[in-house]
Design goal:
- By secondary structure, the chain is an alpha+beta fold.
- It has a domain at about 5-65.
- The chain is about 25% helix and about 20% strand.
- It has helices spanning about 5-10, 55-70, and strands at about 20-25, 25-35, 40-45, 50.
- A 4-stranded antiparallel sheet has the order 1-2-3-4, with no helix packed on it.
- A hairpin with a 2-residue loop joins β3 and β4.
- The termini are far apart.
């Protein structure tokens, strides 16, 4: 379990309550309670605190899985002149 440095913990704040955070295992926990009377918890993944409001984290996870399930991105060979980027110059047609 990676430990968040005391220096980093001293500047991190709960995005909902604005309170300080403490580390409990694989989570950061707000020192103040949220609207429901419970302390808010934020996951730490690969040593990175995920400081998103719970409803935003759920939306971000949904968007990320949708992105992986969506159609493949256009390759330079399939790009039309209207969507060509700087790596694929558009060739005018006559």
């Amino acid at each position: 379990m990676p430990k968040i440095s005391p220096e980093l913990l001293s500047v991190l704040r709960c995005p909902v309550t604005g309170s300080a955070l403490t580390q409990e295992g694989e989570e950061l926990v707000s020192t103040a309670t949220g609207e429901n009377g419970e302390k808010l918890r934020y996951a730490i993944e690969d040593g990175i605190p995920l400081l998103l409001r719970p409803e935003l984290l759920a939306a971000a996870n949904t968007a990320q899985s949708d992105q992986h399930d969506g159609p493949a991105a256009a390759t330079p060979e399939s790009a039309s002149p209207e969507t060509a980027g700087p790596e694929t110059p558009a060739v005018p047609t006559a």
